[in-house]
Design a protein that fits this description.
The protein is mainly α. It contains twelve helices and no strands.
Length: 313
């Protein structure tokens, strides 16, 4: 209970600091919100009146308190570009991008853990070399390269999957999965390489420890020794890295969604930055930061399930 309370307080303080930084940085960006609304040829008196009505002439502290108060109460304002309420717009786009993030993480972990364990069990043999080479290849090549190759192979050559576009998961979930699969696979390949190397390094250390030798001396099957005792003790650091990579995925998703014309959270944030949509930029950064922090909190709490030695109290 104390652990949960400490993490909740840390979560709130960090989110508060992020909101301050986000608000400060977006106010430094060039561009006048009032002029973006009314246009460059607008009447100076009308511009001055709009600035006053929007509270842009108030001190920055007052503007920040009004903004964060609106964020906490659900009044996130209206996008200057899309002319829609920001709250429902972000909810739709975050749902779409979260589908890619979850699929990418699932693909990466499903492939990385067996590959890493396989390499550690066959250390310094051809299996280890093959796994390490594959991981190095995945780390070295950028995500957009994998995206282009996947489009050429699965969309253009084979015609199995769509090369671009977006379908709302709430309208047609199966079609949404088809459109999200290629960008998810492109992100998952790069992430898989990192997690494979992490799993291999952790498992190599675990398999050299005394309790593994004791388990083998007792005559336990090698599969039980490796998966039940070895991986159970090695999965913690892998989970930590996987949790931290959620932030990496949300950062890389901007490029990937632009490449696949997938109108999710990354595409929305890019459009907001491109058009200096200050209210949307502030809300987007705030929401992405909150989701990344929440994902890391969930990983920390999941430690209790995979490692009974850890006690939250």
């Amino acid at each position: 209970m104390i652990y949960l309370l400490n993490r909740s307080v840390s979560f709130a303080i960090t989110l508060l600091l992020i909101s301050v930084i986000t608000f400060a940085v977006t106010n430094i960006l060039p561009g006048d919100v009032a002029m973006m609304i009314m246009g460059t040829q607008s009447n100076p008196e009308a511009l001055a009146g709009l600035r006053e009505s929007l509270g842009l002439n108030d001190p920055l502290v007052t503007q920040y308190l009004r903004w964060i108060g609106g964020m906490l109460t659900g009044d996130w304002g209206t996008s200057l570009v899309f002319k829609e309420e920001i709250g429902p717009l972000l909810l739709q786009k975050m749902t779409a991008s979260s589908l890619i993030v979850v699929m990418s993480m699932t693909i990466a972990l499903t492939a990385a853990v067996p590959l890493g364990v396989w390499a550690a069990v066959h250390r310094d043999k051809w299996q280890d070399t093959a796994s390490s080479t594959t991981a190095l290849l995945g780390v070295s090549l950028p995500d957009f390269f994998w995206g282009i190759m996947l489009i050429l192979l699965f969309a253009r050559a084979l015609g199995w999957l769509p090369s671009s576009g977006f379908v709302d998961p709430g309208e047609d979930f199966l079609r949404a999965l088809k459109h999200a699969f290629l960008p998810s696979l492109a992100l998952g390949l790069g992430l898989m390489a990192h997690l494979t190397r992490m799993t291999r390094a952790t498992m190599t250390g675990i398999l050299a420890q005394e309790f593994i030798r004791v388990a083998r001396a007792k005559g336990l099957p090698e599969r039980t020794v490796v998966w039940r005792y070895g991986l159970a003790n090695a999965i913690g650091p892998v989970m930590t890295v996987a949790g931290l990579q959620v932030g990496y995925l949300f950062g890389s998703i901007i490029v990937m969604e632009s490449l696949f014309n997938y109108t999710g959270m990354g595409w929305l944030t890019y459009q907001a930055l491109l058009n200096r949509d200050i209210p949307l930029i502030q809300a987007s950064v705030f929401v992405i930061a909150a989701v990344v922090m929440l994902a890391n909190l969930i990983v920390d709490l999941a430690y209790v399930l995979v490692d009974p030695r850890i006690r939250l109290g």
